[in-house]
Write a sequence for this structure.
């Protein structure tokens, strides 16, 4: 089982799909993908979380390659607001979604080992 961590908002769906397909094309191992997301429309109108329809589509894709694979959406809006709301990073050049990976140790029942990948990557040879 490959435990994978991705982070992002609704806009990164295409990147998540491309990344997952590139991984699944290189392995027969089941993939357990956790996607951290949040609603930060209080900062910017288009900072919407990945929606359930997008997650369901990703699930269909990974299960088509390996029926044991899974995609799990974890909304960390409340946790983010507790830990990072109002921080200087919210107005940095990159989005606040880049901070989500830092919350992983605060989320219960996560695998001991996770591979974090930026959502705009692809796996090659």
């Amino acid at each position: 089982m490959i435990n994978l961590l991705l982070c992002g908002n609704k806009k990164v769906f295409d990147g998540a799909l491309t990344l997952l397909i590139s991984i699944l094309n290189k392995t027969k191992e089941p993939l357990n993908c956790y996607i951290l997301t949040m609603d930060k429309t209080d900062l910017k109108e288009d900072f919407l979380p990945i929606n359930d329809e997008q997650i369901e589509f990703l699930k269909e894709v990974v299960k088509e390659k390996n029926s044991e694979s899974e995609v799990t959406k974890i909304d960390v809006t409340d946790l983010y607001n507790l830990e990072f709301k109002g921080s200087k990073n919210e107005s940095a050049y990159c989005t606040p979604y880049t901070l989500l990976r830092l919350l992983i140790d605060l989320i219960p029942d996560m695998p001991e080992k996770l591979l974090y990948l930026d959502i705009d990557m692809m796996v090659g040879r």
In short: The first strand starts at residue 2 and ends at 7. Residues 2-116 form one domain. The chain has one domain: 2-116. Residues 52-65 form the longest helix (14 residues).
